[in-house]
Design a protein that fits this description.
Its cofactor is Zn(2+). It contains ten helices and eight strands. The protein is α+β, with helices and mostly antiparallel strands and 359 residues long. It folds into two domains: 254 residues, no CATH class; 98 residues, PDZ domain (Pdz3 Domain, Roll). A hairpin with a 2-residue loop joins strand 4 and strand 5.
């Protein structure tokens, strides 16, 4: 339990700190006055000032934050402090503000891409056109015929007709069409081709199949370090699209008062998944980190008040109309959005608790 909590907080801190680092770096690049970069959330434990920015360590070990001067657009505040007005966030050109706001999302995507690329260098399971035998059931036709774990079924010869086996569906259909009949299997065993005779049984347990084998079409593939980023980018884009569809469906169901999927998880659910990932090892934890980073990027770019996407929307509107939305209006809208988000988090957390205690 303690290890799960530590890893969960570490994952959360990495996700948020990397996100805030994006805002920080681009703000610094454009000369925006960065008042504070905080590790964790207040209250403050201690802080060290380097240059004009205070780097603080805070008591709540959950993520971090960046405080930009003039972020709320308070003109009076800018006039009352000995800082040039043009160094305030609100005073910068629209294009610069857009890049500062979007930088957090970009950094989360970069983190996900980095993690996924690393995992690809360690080995990932990829689909192939080769059907592997993963396991042999005891006292089954497969065991009697001499099949072994690791064998690759290449061809089935039944009643003089040869059928190349390139998918699990090929094997299942061909076997099902010859129940109780003697057939020949041409297999690849450690690079050597062999032929075995087997009779798929007509009566068999539902979880075993006619032959009594567990099969897979996946093989582990390790990508060279120069190919991993390209493969990682493709996979990250695929995962992003799947997340977009999933989030879109969830938002639609919430908006139309439909029940959402049971696997929608909040903080407690994510902590529970962290514990499961730990049991599978380091790569499983890293895979979860990458997936959560993508998820955070996509959720944060949604044009909803209080999220980066909502703030980005106000800046884009200003860029199109040439008029800034009143600061008080924008602040109240973001506060209302935050209230809605906190309510959603509460509802999802209750859903997590109901799912856990109903087992």
């Amino acid at each position: 339990m303690l290890l799960t909590l530590i890893v969960f907080l570490l994952i959360l801190s990495v996700l948020v700190t990397v996100h805030e680092l994006g805002h920080f770096l681009i703000a610094k690049k454009f000369g925006i006055f960065v008042e504070e970069f905080g590790f964790g959330l207040p209250p403050r434990m201690f802080g060290i000032k380097r240059g004009e920015t205070l780097y603080s360590v805070n008591w709540l070990p959950i993520g971090g934050f960046v405080k930009l001067y003039g972020e709320e657009g308070d003109i009076k505040e800018a006039k009352n402090r000995n800082i040039p007005k043009n160094r305030a966030f609100y005073a910068r050109p629209v294009s610069q503000r857009v890049m500062v706001i979007a930088a957090g999302v970009v950094m989360n995507f970069v983190l996900a891409l980095t993690v996924v690329s690393y995992i690809f260098t360690q080995g990932v399971m990829v689909p192939t056109d080769r059907v592997h035998i993963e396991k042999i059931v005891e006292n089954s036709p497969a065991e009697t015929a001499g099949l072994k774990s690791g064998d690759i079924i290449k061809t089935i010869i039944a009643e003089g007709v040869e059928k190349d086996i390139k998918s699990a569906d090929d094997l299942i259909k061909t076997t099902s069409g010859n129940l109780g009949k003697e057939i020949n299997l041409i297999i690849d065993r450690k690079g050597r081709e062999e032929q075995l005779v087997i009779t798929p049984r007509q009566d068999y347990p539902a979880d075993q199949g006619p032959m009594g084998v567990v099969i897979s079409v996946f093989e582990e593939k390790k990508y060279p370090i120069e190919e991993a980023p390209i493969a990682g980018l493709k996979q990250s884009l695929v995962l992003s699209w799947e997340l977009v569809k999933g989030i879109g469906l969830t938002v639609w169901k919430l908006a139309t008062f439909q029940s959402v999927a049971k696997d929608v998880a909040g903080p407690i659910g994510i902590a529970q998944m962290t514990g499961e990932a730990i049991r599978f090892g380091r790569n499983a934890v890293l895979e979860m980190l990458g997936l959560l980073s993508l998820n955070l990027a996509i959720v944060n770019i949604l044009p909803f008040p209080a999220l980066d996407g909502g703030r980005l929307l106000f800046v884009v509107i200003e860029g199109i109309t040439g008029k800034r939305i009143k600061t008080n209006w924008e602040r109240h809208i973001h506060q209302a959005g935050m209230a809605v988000l906190l309510l959603l988090i509460l509802l999802v957390t209750l859903n997590d608790l109901i799912r856990i205690f109903s087992k």
